[in-house]
Amino acid sequence: MLARTWRGVTKAEDADAYLTYLHQTGLTHYRRTPGNLAAYCLRKVADGRAEFLLVTLWESMDAVKRFAGDTPERAIFFPEDDRYLIDRDLHVTHYEVPFAEGQAFEPQRVRFDDFRVAGPAGDLRLVDTGGGGKALPVVFVHGLAGNASHWQAQLEHLARQGRRGIALELRGHGGSTYPEPEDFTLESLTGDIAAVVRALGLRRFVLAGHSISGGVALAYAGENPRQVAGLFLVDPMTDSRRYPEEQVTAYLASLDAPDVAQAVRQDWAQMAGERSDVRERLLADLDATPLSAVVAVQRSSLRFDLAAALARYPGPKFSLVAPDNDAPHSLHRLGEGVAHQVVEGAGHWIQLDHPDAVNAALDAFLTKSAPA
Question: Which Pfam families would you find in this protein's record (predicted)?
C-alpha cells in the first residue's frame, strides 16, 4: 500500500469554497480510479490562510499511475485551481504504508461529510459518493422532515456497484439553511435540485424522490426533460386536488390549529409502519425540522397540480408504493398511468423499512432506463 500526499494553500475566506471544489474534482476522480483505497483531506485555517493536506491511499504504484499518468510524482491540477490556490506543491510525495487499521478503510461505507453548495435560498448540504464512470448518476431527494441519510442504504448500494449517488437536503431540512424570507412551495423547492445539479455539473442523471419530493422531482423533470433520464419515485405524494374541497379546506385549517405539532407527530407515527426503530428515527428527524417548514410544505402540496406535472415529463417513470398508497388518487393512477410495484407490509418510508426491496427495484429501473 502507498500513500500519496499533496499540500495547497488558499485564502481563509476561500476555505469552504475550495473544499466544495475538491469534492467535485480531485476527490471524485480518486473514487473513480480502480485501486484507490481511501482519501483524506486535512485542513488548518490560521493567519488568513487555509492549508490543505490531501492524503490518499493506493493499492500500488500502478494504481497511482491510473490516476496520475506516467509521471506520478507530478501533482494533478484542475481548471479552477488557479482561482483558489495562493501556494501549492507542484510535486507529490509517496510513502510506503507498513500498516493501516480502522473503519476508515472500509470502502463501501458512505461518509456523510458536511458538503455544501450555494442554493437559491441559502446553502444546501448534500452527500456525493463520487465515482460512476460512464454510468448515469442518481440524484436522491428526501421527503418532508427528512434528510440525506434516509437514502444511505441506496447510496451505499450504488457505491458498491461503482455508480455515483447524490443525496441533497432541501432548504430548512438537515444541515441546509432555513430560507429567509420563508419560501417552501413545491415549485420553489425544484430550485434546490437545480442548484445542486448546476454546482456538480451534472448533464444527465436519474432523479429519485420520496413522498412530497416525488412531486418536487416530477416538477423538476417536467422543466428539464433532457437532463432527467428517468424518475424513480418511492411512495410519492397523492393528488390532493382529487379530494373533496371541504376535506382540503378542513385540513388547511388544521395546520393553523394550536395542536398542529402534536397532530403532525401522530401522523408520522402512524405512517412510519411497524418497525419501532424506524419510527423513533423518523420522529427524531421530525423534531429536528422546524415546524414552520413542515406546515408550509404541507400547505403548498395541497394545491400542487400533480397530474399536470406528470403530463409534462415524457421520460421513463416508476413508482414503488406502500399498500396504503395504491388508490385512485395515487400518482401511478393519474393520466395514462405509471408503472408501479406495491411493497407489502411497508410503511411510508419504504427505503428505511425495506431497503433491499428499494435497491432491487432501483437496479431494475436503472437497467432498463439508465444502464451502466
Answer: Abhydrolase_6
CATH of the domain at 126: 3.40.50.1820
Q: Tens of pLDDT along 30-64?
A: 866 878 888 889 999 999 999 999 999 998 898 89
Please count the structural domains in the chain: 2
Longest dimension (CA), the chain: 72
Range list of β-strands (E), the chain: 2-11, 36-46, 49-58, 85-88, 93-96, 115-119, 122-128, 138-141, 165-168, 205-210, 228-234, 317-321, 339-342
Q: Is 321 helix (H, G, I), strand (E, B) or coil?
A: strand
282: enclosing H helix or E strand: helix 276-288
SS3 category, 243: coil
How many C-alpha atoms does 297 have within 13 Å on its Cβ side? 26
- Summarised one tens digit per residue, pLDDT across range 255-287 is 888 999 999 999 999 999 888 889 999 999 999
Co-location of 171 and 48 in the same domain: no
- Assigned C-alpha cell, 305: 397540480
Decide: helix, strand or coil at residue 220.
helix
Q: Residues with Cβ < 8 Å from 206, sequence gap 6 or more? A: 136, 137, 138, 139, 228, 229, 230, 231, 232, 365, 366, 369, 370
Answer yes or no: do 85 and 128 share one domain: no
Encode burial over 124-147: b for 16+ CB neighbours within 10 A, e otherwise.
Answer: bbbbbbbbbeebbbbbbbbbbbbb
CATH number (domain holding residue 49): 3.30.70.100
Torsion of CA 183, 187, 191, 197, to 10 degrees: 150
The reply to whether the predicted model has a pTM over 0.85 is: no
Give dist(CA 221, CA 27) in Å, integer: 28
